[in-house]
Design goal:
about 400 residues; alpha+beta; Uridine Diphospho-n-acetylenolpyruvylglucosamine Reductase, domain 2; Uridine Diphospho-n-acetylenolpyruvylglucosamine Reductase, domain 3; six-stranded antiparallel sheet; five-stranded antiparallel sheet; globular; oxidoreductase activity; flavoprotein; FAD-bd_PCMH-like_sf; FAD binding; signal
């Protein structure tokens, strides 16, 4: 169960929990293939149920959610994207784009059977403009690829989420990470887009040109068209030194469920106070011995005061450990696999989310229920449950 929350004011928490079951059953069934002749006539590389690679071409990352498409198109040019959209319109089919194929809900394959999948692997690009400081990208560019490209070549960073193999086009609908409280999400940093619309036309949009489309793409791009290019802001790190910290119950402690609830409520109390600092990221792991882990983007000296204000709100049996590193080293901790650009194996799981707004924070009863249904819930022998709470908010991520 993933929980993520937002509000018109500052959002306090994003709650996440995951129920994973070993094994799974692949979806089966026929798919409409009438669109195949139109795509082939347009000269577009196509995969159909009769294609030898069909099973691989339509394999979702979360095998629990496996919609069966009608066809998969592989456009090589913007013009072929337009042609494929026209074919789908003529056939009365919905269209979805596939980037990195690392979606919890298999969004790249559509919500229901029968969609046309637009695999954008041939339109992948990544380019930085040193004059404007903007990064241009499209297609299945992974977070790890974009982050490595910016750091290795320009010593700059970009807003991103915490899964290295998630596509940058997918996280453009949100993309909350450890720097989001200070720099915003990917969505907050989009400057312009290039979009193929349902009628096949291709347009550019920003705050001044096609501003209504630009507004819609930032959060609902899949309802607007096929985004061929994003341009986003990049940043110098807020600090070259980063403090990685962990707060946990001491080794001899045997915390009760109420102790864990107190830790979560205490974290929330700090988040609602004037001591809340947007250079701190916090991920609260829902366990029978819960932990807080995150980063302070500054020196150990500056971090001391911030952590002291947080610790006074937590149970006395919790202890703080810290480690200072350079910025890029901290990225490999916050986003494991970002340096090696590793791919996460396929999974079979259920995930959901909820956002806790500032105006209706958790209380003891709701926090107790959260733990009762995650860390302290009965588990099946072949299943595991996990979850976490992220502090959101900040200047941008409201």
């Amino acid at each position: 169960m993933v929980a993520s929350v937002s509000s018109a004011s500052r959002a306090i928490f994003a709650l996440c929990s995951l129920i994973a079951v070993q094994g799974g059953v692949a979806a089966a069934g026929g798919a409409q293939i009438e669109i195949g002749s139109c795509l082939e006539k347009a000269g577009i590389e196509t995969s159909l149920p009769t294609t030898s690679t069909w099973a691989v071409d339509t394999e979702a990352w979360n095998s629990r959610v496996s919609p069966v498409p009608s066809a998969v198109a592989y456009p090589k040019t913007e013009e072929e994207v337009s042609a494929a959209l026209k074919c789908a319109a003529d056939a009365g089919l919905k269209v979805t784009t596939l980037g990195g194929n690392r979606s919890f809900s298999s969004m790249g394959f559509g919500r229901d059977d029968g969609a046309l999948i637009m695999n954008l692997k041939y339109l992948k690009h990544l380019k930085y403009d040193e004059k404007t400081k903007l990064l241009s990208y499209g297609g299945p560019v992974m977070i790890s690829e974009a982050a490595n490209y910016m750091w290795s070549n320009f010593s700059r960073t970009l807003p991103h989420g915490r899964c290295p193999d998630v596509g940058m086009t997918g996280v453009a609908a949100s993309g909350f990470g450890t720097l989001s409280r200070s720099s915003g999400t990917v969505l907050d940093n989009i400057v312009s887009v290039r979009v193929a619309l349902a009628n096949g036309s291709i347009v550019d949009a920003d705050a001044k040109q096609n501003s209504d489309l630009f507004w819609g793409v930032r959060g609902a791009a899949s309802s607007m068209g096929v985004v061929l290019d994003f341009k986003i802001k990049t940043y110098e790190p807020p600090s070259q030194r980063v403090v990685n910290y962990t707060i946990e119950f001491n080794s001899s402690a045997k915390p009760t469920q109420q102790d864990n609830v107190d830790a979560l409520i205490g974290t929330q109390k700090w988040a609602l106070s004037k001591d809340n600092n947007d250079l701190v990221s916090i991920r609260f792991s829902l366990k029978t011995k819960s932990t807080l882990q995150g980063f302070f983007y500054g020196s150990s000296k500056k971090a001391t005061k911030v952590f002291a204000s947080l610790m006074k709100n937590l149970p006395p049996s919790m202890v703080l450990t810290t480690n200072e590193s350079d910025f890029w080293a901290s990225e490999s901790i916050s986003t494991p696999g970002i340096v090696a650009q590793t791919l996460t194996p396929r999974r079979f799981f259920y995930i959901t989310s909820v956002t806790i707004p500032r105006k209706t924070p958790l209380n003891n009863a709701t926090a107790w229920e959260l733990f009762s249904n995650t860390a302290f819930a009965p588990k099946l022998p072949d299943a595991s449950a996990s979850g976490f709470v992220d502090i959101w908010g900040g200047k941008y991520a409201k």
